[in-house]
Design brief:
Helices cover 45% and strands 22% of the residues. With 383 residues, the chain is of the alpha+beta class. The chain folds into three domains: 10-179, Transcription factor LuxR-like, autoinducer-binding domain (Beta-Lactamase, 2-Layer Sandwich), CATH 3.30.450.80; 192-306, Beta-Lactamase (2-Layer Sandwich), CATH 3.30.450.20; 315-379, Winged helix-like DNA-binding domain superfamily/Winged helix DNA-binding domain (Arc Repressor Mutant, subunit A), CATH 1.10.10.10. It has a five-stranded antiparallel beta sheet, with helices on both faces.
Amino acid sequence: MISTTSAPSPDAFALDLYTALLDGRGLARAVAPLARALGTSTHAVHLMQYEQGVLRESRCEGNGLAADVTAEYDSHWIHQDPWARAAARHGDGVLNLARAVPIPAYRAAPIWNDWKAPRDGAFHCISALVRAPDGMVGRIAFHRSVRAEPFGPAQEKLLEPIYPHLRRALLAEARLAAGGWHTARALRAGFAALRQGVVLLDRNRRIVATNPAVEAMSRQQDGLALLTEGGLLSPNPEARQALQRAIGSAIAAISGQVKLMPDAASVALPRRSGAAPYLVQALPLRRLEAMGMPEGFTGVMLLVTDDVQRPRPRAPLLRQAFGLTPAEGALAASLAAGRSLAQHAAQRRIKVGTARGQLAAVLRKTGCDRLADLTALLGRLTG
């Protein structure tokens, strides 16, 4: 049996709720005293945005729940959760989910059998719910494990005098989230055209926006994953630490703690397949002013390059950029594609000595002293 404590004073509790909204502490932490009074194992603040009855966005902030658990729920299990469907149908008020989704039905659901049961996840749930006209559904959900007693009338009665404050706090949180969701949609539209992967983080390392390129990389499960908290994750311990250091340095640079921060810190993420590693650059964003961005936004942009898919610079671009002749541009394009001098000569049916003469001209026009310097320069170009 889970022990419970007395409910917090509604007035004092309300003050702490509204303070949490103002200082950015988050509602999940602010409702912890109430969770203890209800005898819960975990609890979460969950916001869902519907458009014409279809779930478009979801954000879950948990207390007692690991970040990867809430991220996996937001990205996948929310769409299979009978509790979420029941919350979307229900109006404002306190809902004991056992009344909307009978325990035998929940026990048979895939979310329980395939995900929650193996890690002893939430089995009983009581929620404070609110619905807004714009399609937003908010809930503060309190959970108990399968071994605990279900929530009953006593817990429902305990929530009733506090519910009006929970409702106001949820509506305020939803309005804040709505601005973030609109921003994220605008950013995704702008980043969608980029072949590089883009992950935009706020100063707390939470994902603000991603683009289709990095989402596709994540689905391959070949060297990187996306998490709501922390942005990118690499299964390689050394690469993971290097990436976190790069993000930390960028955040420190925003605050002025690092005065000589380079424009971008670069990290290589090895891939399980053995393909060329992903190349990640962490760029600090200092009070960025741009359409679709929150005013004075500061954060970190991660640019992810898949070297296998990166388009190599073509001869016309190289000729224009460095004033090369057609033959010199063709040689530079071959080197950018990874071919050797001898391979280029064979492909063009010219002597290797002729190719060496063209290489000398390319080195001079690009300002490079060695072939290694030239290939490094070409490697930074695309198109």
